[in-house]
Amino acid sequence: MTKKIPKFKNEIEEGEFWSTQDVTDYFDTTELESVSFPKLKPSTKTISIRLPEMILDSIKILANKRDVPYQSLIKTYLQEKIDREFHTKPA
User: Fold this and answer.
1) Residues 90, 46 share a domain
2) From the DSSP assignment, how many helices (H) and strands (E) are in the chain?
3) Dist. CA 82–CA 30, nearest whole Å
4) Model pTM?
5) Alpha helices, DSSP H only, in the chain?
6) Rounded-to-integer distance, Cα 62 and Cα 52, Å
7) Which of 51-64 are b and which e, b meaning 16 or more Cβ less than 10 Å from the residue's Cβ?
8) 5: alpha, beta or left, given left = phi > 0 and alpha = psi -120 to 50?
9) Dihedral angle of Cα 8, 40, 79, 9, to the nearest 10 degrees
10) Does one domain contain both 21 and 61?
11) Which of 8, 23, 73, 89 could form a disulfide with 14 if both were Cys (CB 3.0 to 4.6 A apart)?
C-alpha cells in the first residue's frame, strides 16, 4: 500500500518534503523502467546583480585558480550557502 502524496504550497516545500522521504513509500516501484535524459539541463533564468568590484575580482581570481568560469563558481557558492541554510536547525 502506498502513502498519499500531500499537496505542496510551492517547490521549496515540496523539496523539503522529498528530502526526508523514501520515494518507494509513495510509488509502486515494481513496474518502473530505467530511462535516461542525457541532454536535460536545469532551467535557468538570467538575472542582473550588482557586486562591488573587489568581490567580483576576488571571485574571478578564485575561479581562475579552479579553472572554472566565474559565474559557475558564484552559482556553486550560492548553492552551498542555500544547502547550509536549509540543513541548519534553529537554536
Assistant:
1) yes
2) 3, 0
3) 35
4) 0.52
5) 11-18, 53-66, 70-87
6) 16
7) eeeeeeeebeeebe
8) beta
9) -10
10) no
11) 8
